[in-house]
Write a structure and sequence with these properties.
Shape: globular
Largest sheet: 7 strands, antiparallel
CATH superfamily: START domain
Helix content: 25-40%
Radius of gyration: 15 Å
Order of helices and strands: EHHEEEEEEH
Strand content: 35-45%
Structural class: alpha+beta
Low-confidence stretches: none
CATH class: Alpha Beta
Distance between the termini: 42 Å
Number of helices: 3
Strand order of the largest sheet: 1-7-6-5-4-3-2
Number of strands: 7
Length: about 140
């Protein structure tokens, strides 16, 4: 089973401010509660997430290798994360609006061990709320 989610956020901030956050692999990882820790390769922008999932078949953190596979600054970024436990794809599309910016977020999670899809089916909304909260905090701090 695959878990898919699409959420749209509106910000009273310029597209460049939203891009600065969403295009940064460190900021994206910081916003996800199940990312226990991460490392970012400063040259390539690739990141290794150490994900802690509270499911029976994953006793320690799972190493998820992520990389941006498409970037069109300041409008679009797509990343893919792969591991033996899951595969995640995230797409972020930034659109200017009359009052600021619209951010369209699309995520797909494919579990590779039992329980992963069920976990994300129940928790992916909350993870996107975390992302929105951190992005708002960043945009408000920058103004």
């Amino acid at each position: 089973m695959t878990v898919r989610i699409r959420r749209v956020f509106e910000f009273d901030a310029p597209p460049e401010a939203v891009w600065e956050f969403i295009a940064d692999p460190s900021k994206r990882a910081d916003a996800i509660s199940v990312v226990d820790r991460y490392e970012v390769d400063e040259e390539t922008g690739a990141a290794t997430w150490h994900v802690r999932l509270p499911i029976p078949f994953v006793k320690s953190t799972a190493r998820v290798e992520t990389e941006d596979v498409a970037r069109d600054p300041p409008e679009y970024v797509k990343f893919v994360g792969k591991s033996s436990v899951l595969r995640v794809t995230g797409e972020h599309t930034i659109e200017p609006t009359a009052d600021g910016t619209r951010l369209i977020n699309e995520f797909v999670v494919d579990g590779r061990v039992p329980g992963v899809e069920r976990f994300f089916e129940k928790n992916l909304d909350a993870e996107l709320e975390n992302l929105e909260r951190e992005l708002r905090r960043s945009v408000e701090t920058d103004r």
